[in-house]
Amino acid sequence: RDSCVSDSSDSVISSGSDSDGQIYKVVLLGEHGVGKSTLARIFGGVEDTLDYEDAGNTYDRSIIVDEEEANILLYDVWEQDNSQWLKDQCMRMGDAYIIVYSVTDKSSFEKASELRIQLRRARQSENIPIILVGNKTDLVRSREVSVDEGSACAVVFDCKFIETSASLHHNVRTLFEGIVRQIRLRRDSKEE
Ligand code: GDP
Ligand code: MG
């Protein structure tokens, strides 16, 4: 068991145009070094072999999930600067959140819980889709956070959970499909 997000898929990631015109803002949160930018670059289709430090980027892509196109604006801006303004802005603007920690770094896992609590405080009555992501599963020998700890945390915080390896591209597509499905579930239940 390495994922609580459904992994049935035959979807294609492509840059394309709107279907329903709706653009969903997805915000990446998490401590420095956990792999946010690497995940974002894979999503954005910019897979440089070069390991560069980027200040902050936004990726605009359309992804087909369950035969329906979704337009995603992915914000990798959490660490763009240290201003409280930016942090507040990030907490406010997302339609959905991806909170990343590294399975090789316990303190990043604890930080993820903190972020979840902050998010809850900022968006009290809203039921926003959140996926908790344990990244770097390829680093088997340096693992400090077990799958069970990760998924138990997600249960407590009422969010989805998945483990990924951005380096191996493992579960990365499933992660982004999962966020789209979560957004749609909320959207569809609002429409009823
Ligand atoms: P950020 O600070 O959260 O944006 O993290 P980065 O995406 O910049 O990644 C930090 C470092 O971890 C970089 O050297 C990445 O190459 C590395 N990294 C990211 N994801 C993985 C992964 O899944 N496995 C391994 N082994 N390294 C990773
Ligand atoms: Mg980064």
Describe the structure using short key phrases:
alpha/beta; 192 residues; 5 helices; globular; binds guanosine-5'-diphosphate
Give a short overview.
This protein is of the alpha/beta class and 192 residues long. Helices cover 34% and strands 23% of the residues.
Distinct small molecules: guanosine-5'-diphosphate, magnesium ion
The largest sheet, given as strand count, sense and whether it forms a barrel, is:
7 strands, mixed
Q: Give the amount of beta strand, in percent.
A: 15-25%
Q: What's the Cα radius of gyration?
A: 16 Å
Which residues form runs of ≥5 with pLDDT under 50?
A: 1-18
Q: Can you give the helix content as a percent range? A: 25-40%
- How many strands in all? 7
How far do the termini sit from each other?
Answer: 33 Å
Write down the overall mean pLDDT.
87
**Cα shape:** globular
> How many separate helices?
5
Give me the strand/helix succession: EEHEEHEHEHEH
Instruction: State the strand order across the main sheet.
Output: 1-3-4-2-5-6-7
Structural category? alpha/beta
